[in-house]
Amino acid sequence: MFEALRMSLNATAVFGFILYIVVAMALFALFQFLYTRITPHKEFELIRENNPAAAIALGGSLIGFALPASNIISYSVSVVDFVVWVLIAAVVQLLAFVGTGLVLKGLAARIARGELAAAIYAASVAISVGFLNSACMTPAA
Q1: What separation in angstroms does the CA of 92 have from each of 13, 68, 133?
Q2: pLDDT > 70: what percent of the chain?
Q3: What is the per-residue pLDDT for 141?
Q4: What is the pTM of this model?
Q5: Structurally, how many domains does the chain consist of?
Q6: How much is the CA Rg of the chain, to the nearest whole Å?
């Protein structure tokens, strides 16, 4: 048992974990920053005011981003490969919000007003797009 643990916790594996988790967290923070700057409503201000619609919509977009990011980590051949594909995933997720806004007119205002139905729909689209995005980001056969 200790031999297996020693083998799995070798310096190369630990360094790889640290490198990928640091880069992944930085990209996650960058996505969150960009998303909250691109959307017309102020997510964190609304969340501080206890607006559940803002939290639901933002949470869905973060999950929708993290799904393909986690898949990309599994299949990437390098950190650079990971970064490039995660940036593509971020663009797809941002486009999902734009597309949802076209379907639900006044989406940002509705979220700002605390309309849960609009937020749940936006979060559901974001998570669904994240799943599809994740499935599409696999190595070519």
Answers
A1: 31, 10, 8
A2: 98
A3: 53
A4: 0.89
A5: 1
A6: 18
Q: Terminal CA-to-CA distance of the chain, rounded, Å?
A: 36
Tell me whether residue 121 is in a domain.
yes
27-31, Cβ contacts within 8 angstroms, sequence gap of 24 or more: 27/69, 27/83, 27/86, 27/87, 27/90, 28/62, 28/65, 28/66, 28/69, 30/90, 31/62, 31/65, 31/90, 31/93
Residue 8 lies in a domain: no
Domain of residue 105: give its range: 26-136
pLDDT in tens, 89-137: 999 999 999 999 999 999 999 999 999 999 999 999 999 999 999 999 8
Cα gap 34→73, rounded to integer Å: 21
Instruction: Return the structure tokens found at 141.
Output: 């056969």
